[in-house]
Every structure is written in structure tokens, then in C-alpha cells.
Write a structure and sequence with these properties.
The structure holds 2 protein chains of 2 kinds. By secondary structure, chain A is α/β, with parallel strands linked by helices. Chain A is 45% helix and 15% strand. In chain A, the strands form 2 sheets. A 7-stranded mixed sheet of chain A has the order 12-10-9-8-6-7-13, with helices on both faces. In chain A, α7 runs parallel beside α9 and α7 runs antiparallel to α15. Chain B has a single domain, classed as ABC transporter involved in vitamin B12 uptake, BtuC. The radius of gyration of chain B is 22 Å and the shape is globular. The chains are: A alpha/beta, B mainly alpha. The interface between A and B is large, with 59 and 62 residues.
Chain lengths: 405, 360
């Protein structure tokens, strides 16, 4: 009995540890290529250059982090500025080390601001300890006092108007769904038609403002077009998909697809890979997020909602190169549709699947999207920005039924 | 003489796997084209031989000392409590809730209340498997292991719901108030929490080595039926042992939250979590309090060292994850060897095949 339970225990410990080391080694293998390319860049002690701390997803996440690193690579190629990429679990500790090592520009892609902005455990905030270093944080603006004034002059917040990009994706989804039979060859896809097909699915990684901002914008986009066309849509959502389990994502997406949804949008990291694969399997469509992942399953990814960190990283680094960081210090940099840092893809991958007879309709849809984008830019269309704390009122979406928001 | 021999053997049994893990890790580092000696030097020098680094190491060792002890006390009694992770997470979560909801308390009192909450929550959590084990003989390993998942879902639900910080872009509770934070000593990472962990270590040392309970734990671990026959009330003892384990686990979680994380997020415990790390530490320290103390500091040095590696060399910090994995693997081999005497069997096979004299 004793031996039996002991061996069981051992097997368990091994399993648990292997599972964890399994994923870390995996990361490691992928990461080595990355650090390999920057090997020569970090050796020169005299010019340290720029440092970047990745989020938990790691340097090779094919999206958020990787695009930022692409931006740094571009900076190195063009301006010859070195860079250092750090995958940290202890973000405040790494910020301190990088700042004290002498880096003057540090990007932090992780959500972890308490120690940087407010200081914890009675110590001064990191931003205050290293006033000569510029810290750039993403997706949130923690750098404000309660009266709205700026806390630290050396912190820059970068925000993306992803709610607007999601709105476009929602509008596109409805337009494509309504005209699917005209646009595509019926042999390629198996869309559910008629009222039963007026359903859309959304998978979010967690129920937080950083994720709901995508879902709400998407819902409003669907509603906008549905209202114009006078049809009613159903919006299924699940905000508990996590960020790693692509198999579970595929299963969830499948329940939406079998229920009649033709398009499922996943804002949940690697979960999206599973959704794309499932879309191909059931011959329907998915929508990706962060980077341009239209080629993940060519023809079955309708579009990707971009949150391109490359653009701000490149632009801020340019300020660093030109010694003009003080122009942006303490500011909030908001990237809208026009900046190119957010938006939807150019749709070239899905376009190759459009039937010859549907080309005219397709051009019409694209023109329609441009008009909507203009209306957003001019303020005629107002999209709820959950990330900025704006409340979302689903009762206002008359043509959209949200049974499980 | 014989006692000395076994101590030496024990030390060898721990040091050898550690050394092997480092050698294998070194080969990997060399394989990606970096200098393993330099990498290890950065790791050791920054995490143990610099004041800041050492204090940081001790800071991160604090919760690990506690989870290691929490695991060891049950394992020594042959109760396989997998629930220390759950107790730590739950303890941390509720300490956090008290940390931001209760307002207006002086610092010392607020910290004490938060820690106490963590301890009580940890004990309540461990009471369920303890009662099931003691009175219904339900396998505690299964129950505790599964309860960890329940805990994850509960805290996820609560931190996305009632306790959610609406201004935060990710899943997170409110940060705890300043009065509930352990203050950093001399602007280093170290806080009073480390000394609390040391105090618990001292108490547990006495319990293990000098107290009646320590003797009973050992006896129950060796043979529960015999212990019952000699007059120990094994059921009660199982419950007490589990409660102590839960209390220490809860303390580990709440202290870690109040000295390092300051708000509860879904990655609070890290991966592997505090409890799983504690299991490795208990194994590494051979369920001996002093061994656990050393192992926890060693393990924390690996952890902080891994962060420094990421910043100061081009070796990905995940190499430390590899070393940890190898360590568990090699330690398990030693464990197997002790229990099943593989080496003797192998030796026996060799002797047979080489036809040596058996009648020696």
C-alpha cells in the first residue's frame, strides 16, 4: 500500500513538474533563436540601447510581443541602436535591474504597474527612483493622479483604439455573412443560411477590460450593419476561454458553428489557433487578433484585428534616437485607425477566395468599410471603449441579441 | 560512526542530483553557444554574493520555506497532501480581500489580521480532506489534488466578479492598502515576512525534533496501525497534522501577497506554484526542517538568478526551468532507489552475469 501510493505520488510529482518544465523548455527553444539574433547587439557595454520586457506570452507569441520586437529589429537596422529583450516573471525586479544597468528607454509589455507608478511596500516608485529613464507601458494609463494630472514625467502610456478596429471587424462580419452566397463558391464553404445563420461567436481570454473592449466593439459593429439591413443577430460570447488551451477553444467554437454561427472571433492568444483550425474543418470563418494571422488557415480566417505594437515601439525609439523623448514624456499616446497601429488587415488573403461573380459585391463591401472607418474617425460613429472605463449598454443594441454577455 | 555514514550518504544523495542537473544544464547552455561557467557565475554572484541579490533571494525564499514545511509535515506522516498550493492561493486571496476592504487599521494590526485570515482560510481548506481521510478513509491525495482546481475556479470567479478592480485592464482584484503591506527593509526586497517564516521554521524544528507530536508524526508515517495500537489517536492526529499544514500553507500565500504581489491576479502563485515548488523543496530537503531551509534558499537563488540571467546574459532564463525539471527527475531517481533498491537489483544482475563468487 505504502509503496503503491509512493509510486503514485512520484508519478504525480513528475507529471506536474514535467508539464511545467515542458512548457518552459518549449519557450526556451523558441526563444533561443530570438536572443541568438540579438547576441552581438547586447555585448557592447558602452551603448546599451533600448530594453523591452515581454508579457507572459513570451517573445515568440506571433503577435503582441513579437511585433514589438520586430519594431526593435527595425530600429537596429535603421539607426544601429542595440536592444535587449527580457522575458521576466518578476517584472518590477527586472525594471529596476534594467534601469540601474543604465538603459534609458524601457518598454514593458506586461500589465504590472503598481511598483513602477505607485511604489509598493513603502518604497519609492521605480519611475521616481530612475528619473532619467523613460518607461513605456501599454494598454492602460496608470500614470494619472485622481485629479487627472500626470504622475511621472518619465512614463509614457500607449493605448490602441482596438474597439474601433473590432467595430470594423463586426461590420465586415455582418456584411460578409449576409452576402456569403454571392461572395464565395458554394463548394468551398458550408455556411448556415437564412435567419439560422445570423449568429456570431466571440471567445475572450478573460473577463477584463483589456478583452471586453474587443467584444463590445465587435458587438456594436455587428449591430450597426444589422440595423441598416433591418435584420436581427445573435451574439454568443464566452469570456473564460483562457489564453493557451487551443483544443478547448476549438471545442467551444464548434458549439457556436454547429448552432449556426458562421463567424467566430477569438481574442484569447493561442486559443485562436484552435478556432482557426476548427473553422477550416467546418468550412466557416474565424477572426484573429493582434498580428496579421490571415494566413494561419488561408481562406478560413476572415480578417485579423490588428494591435500592432511595432508602430509605437518604432516611433518612440525614433524619438530616443533623435533625443526628443521629452516631447512625449508623461503623455498618453493613443493609436487610432488612421495610425496603422490598429485596424483590420487588407483582406488580401480572403480576397483570393472570392468567386469571380462576387467581385462587384466584394468591392462594395470594402467601400462600405472605408465609409464606416471615416465615420468613426469623424466621430459620427461612437464606439464604446471599455478599456477607458466606458460602460457598455447592451440594451441599446436593438438588432443584437446577447443571451450570455 | 554509523550515524555519520548515513548523514554523509544523505548529503551525497542530494548533492549528486543537484550537481548532475547543473552539468546537464551547462551542456545545454554550451549547445546554444553561450558560456555555461559565465552564466552560472552571473546567477550565483548576483543571487547570493551581492547584498541586494542575497536579500532578494531571502525574500523569495520566505514563502518557499513555509510551503516546504507544510508539505514535509504531512509527508513525514505518510499523508500525501497535495493541497498546499490550494491553501496558499486561497490564503493569499482572502488576505488580499481583507487587505483592501478593512480600512483604518494601524499597520501592525492590519498585517496581523490579514495574515490571520490567510491562516484560518488555509486551515478550513485543509479541514475538508482531513475529515474525509480521518473518518471516511477517503484518499487524501485525490481530494487535495482536485480541490486545487476548485480553488482556482473560485478565486477566478471572485476576482472577475465582486472583487474586480474595474480600472484594471486585466483580471485583478484591488491592490491592498498601504497599511496591509509589509514594508521593505532599507529599500531592499526583504520584509518582516522573512523573519516570520524563520520563526515558523524554528517552531517547526522544535515540533519535528523535540515534541511528542513530532514523534507521533514519525510513528504514524512508519506504521499507523501500530501507532493506533500503542494508544495514539491516529484520526485526531491526522486532522491536527493537516490543519498545521493548511495553516502554514495559508500563511505562505498571504505573506507572499502582502510582501510581493500586493494584489491578486490569476498568475499569483506563478508556475509552478508555491505549493508545487514546496513539494520539490521538501523532497530536496529530505523532509527535514534544516534541509528544507537550505533547499528553499537554494531554490529561491535559482529563481532570482534566472531573472538576472535574462538581464545580464543572452541565455534565456528558461534554462533555470530546465535545471529545475532535471533536478526533480534526478531526485526522483534517488527516491525510487531508496524505496525499491534498484541499484542493488542491478548490482545483483551484474554479479550473476559476471559469475562472481556468491559465497564470499
Amino acid at each position: 500500500m505504502k509503496k503503491k501510493s509512493l509510486s503514485l505520488l512520484l508519478a504525480l510529482v513528475m507529471l506536474v513538474s514535467m508539464a511545467f518544465t515542458g512548457c518552459t523548455t518549449n519557450n526556451n527553444g523558441a526563444n533561443s533563436t530570438n536572443t541568438g539574433t540579438s547576441t552581438d547587439t547586447t555585448k557592447g557595454k558602452d551603448d546599451l540601447g533600448i530594453a523591452l520586457i515581454t508579457s507572459a506570452a513570451g517573445a515568440n507569441d506571433k503577435g503582441y510581443n513579437q511585433s514589438a520586437i520586430e519594431g526593435l529589429k527595425k530600429v537596429k537596422d535603421e539607426f544601429g541602436i542595440n536592444y535587449k529583450v527580457v522575458e521576466a516573471t518578476d517584472v518590477p525586479g527586472s525594471l529596476t535591474q534594467l534601469a540601474s544597468a543604465g538603459y534609458k528607454l524601457i518598454f514593458s509589455l506586461e500589465y504590472n504597474f503598481d511598483a513602477l507608478i505607485n511604489g509598493v511596500g513603502g518604497s519609492k516608485s521605480i519611475a521616481e527612483q530612475y528619473p532619467d529613464t523613460t518607461f513605456v507601458v501599454f494598454n492602460d494609463n496608470p500614470n494619472v493622479k485622481e485629479d487627472g494630472s500626470v504622475k511621472h514625467k518619465n512614463v509614457v502610456s500607449v493605448l490602441f483604439d482596438v474597439h474601433e478596429a473590432s467595430f470594423l471587424a463586426g461590420a465586415l462580419s455582418t456584411l460578409v455573412n449576409e452576402n456569403a452566397s454571392a461572395l464565395f463558391n458554394s463548394a468551398d464553404y458550408a455556411f448556415t443560411t437564412g435567419a439560422a445563420g445570423r449568429k456570431v461567436g466571440f471567445l475572450g481570454g478573460s473577463k477584463s477590460n483589456g478583452i471586453t473592449v474587443f467584444g463590445y466593439g465587435f458587438a456594436e459593429g455587428i449591430n450597426y450593419v444589422a440595423k441598416e439591413l433591418g435584420v436581427k443577430y445573435t451574439f454568443y460570447s464566452d469570456y473564460n476561454a483562457g489564453f493557451s488551451d487551443s483544443a478547448a477553444g476549438a471545442t467551444k467554437a464548434n458549439t457556436y458553428y454547429t448552432d449556426g454561427a458562421n463567424i467566430v472571433y477569438a481574442v484569447a492568444g493561442a486559443v485562436g489557433d484552435g478556432v482557426d483550425a476548427k473553422a477550416k474543418e467546418v468550412k466557416k470563418l474565424s477572426i484573429e487578433v493582434d498580428a496579421n494571422k490571415d494566413s494561419n488557415q488561408p481562406g478560413y480566417v476572415l480578417t485579423s484585428v490588428l494591435k500592432n505594437t511595432e508602430v509605437p515601439v518604432y516611433e518612440i525609439s525614433k524619438n530616443y534616437k533623435e533625443n526628443t523623448l521629452d516631447q512625449i514624456n508623461g503623455k498618453v499616446l493613443s493609436y487610432n485607425l488612421a495610425s496603422g497601429a490598429t485596424g483590420i488587415t487588407d483582406l488580401s488573403v480572403i480576397e483570393s477566395k472570392i468567386a469571380a461573380s462576387g467581385k462587384a459585391k466584394w468591392d462594395e463591401i470594402k467601400a462600405k468599410l472605408d465609409t464606416i472607418a471615416d465615420k468613426i474617425a469623424s466621430g459620427e460613429i461612437k464606439v464604446t471603449n471599455a478599456q477607458a472605463g466606458e460602460a457598455f449598454d447592451k440594451a441599446k443594441l436593438e438588432n443584437l441579441n446577447m443571451p450570455n454577455d | 560512526m554509523k550515524k555519520n555514514d548515513t548523514i554523509l550518504k544523505n548529503i551525497f544523495n542530494v548533492v549528486f542530483p543537484v550537481a548532475c542537473a547543473f552539468v546537464l544544464g551547462g551542456i545545454l547552455i554550451a549547445a546554444i553557444g553561450e558560456n555555461p561557467f559565465l552564466t552560472y557565475w552571473v546567477m550565483i554572484q548576483k543571487s547570493l554574493f551581492s547584498v541586494d541579490g542575497l536579500l532578494k533571494t531571502l525574500h523569495f525564499a520566505s514563502p518557499l520555506i513555509l510551503t516546504g514545511l507544510a508539505i514535509a509535515i504531512t509527508f513525514k506522516a505518510n499523508i500525501f497532501n497535495m493541497g498546499v498550493e490550494g491553501a496558499a492561493v486561497l490564503g493569499g486571496f482572502f488576505a488580499c480581500v481583507v487587505g483592501f476592504t478593512v480600512k483604518g487599521l494601524p499597520t501592525v494590526l492590519h498585517i496581523a489580521v490579514c495574515l490571520l485570515t490567510g491562516i484560518v482560510v488555509g486551515m478550513l481548506f485543509s479541514l475538508i480532506p482531513a475529515l474525509l481521510k480521518a473518518y471516511f478513509n477517503v484518499n487524501e491525495m485525490v481530494v487535495t489534488l482536485m480541490m486545487n482546481y476548485v480553488v482556482v475556479e473560485i478565486v477566478k470567479f471572485l476576482s472577475q466578479g465582486v472583487f474586480k478592480d474595474p480600472s484594471s485592464g486585466y483580471v485583478s482584484t484591488y491592490p491592498i492598502l498601504d497599511s496591509a503591506m509589509f514594508k521593505k527593509i532599507f529599500n531592499s526586497d526583504l520584509t518582516v515576512f522573512f523573519f516570520i517564516a524563520l520563526l515558523v521554521f524554528a517552531v517547526m524544528y522544535v515540533v519535528f525534533k523535540k515534541s511528542k507530536l513530532g514523534y507521533e508524526i514519525k510513528a504514524i508515517g512508519k506504521n499507523p496501525e501500530f501507532s493506533e495500537a500503542t494508544g495514539m489517536r491516529v484520526k485526531n492526529k491526522i486532522i491536527i497534522i493537516m490543519l498545521i499544514s493548511g495553516a502554514i500553507g495559508g500563511l505562505a500565500g498571504s505573506g507572499f501577497l502582502m510582501s510581493e504581489k500586493y494584489r491578486f491576479t490569476m498568475d499569483f502563485s506563478g508556475s509552478p506554484g508555491l505549493g508545487w515548488d514546496g513539494m520539490l523543496i521538501a523532497l530536496l530537503g529530505s523532509h527535514n526542517p534544516v534541509g528544507i531551509l537550505i533547499a528553499a534558499i537554494f531554490y529561491a537563488a535559482l529563481k532570482t538568478g534566472s531573472e538576472y540571467i535574462g538581464v545580464f546574459t543572452n541565455v534565456p532564463k528558461d534554462i533555470v526551468g530546465v535545471i529545475q525539471g532535471l533536478l526533480i527527475l534526478l531526485l526522483s531517481v534517488k527516491f525510487l532507489n531508496e524505496r525499491f533498491r534498484f541499484s542493488n537489483k542491478i548490482r545483483f544482475l551484474f554479479k550473476k552475469s559476471s559469475k562472481t563468487d556468491f559465497n564470499k
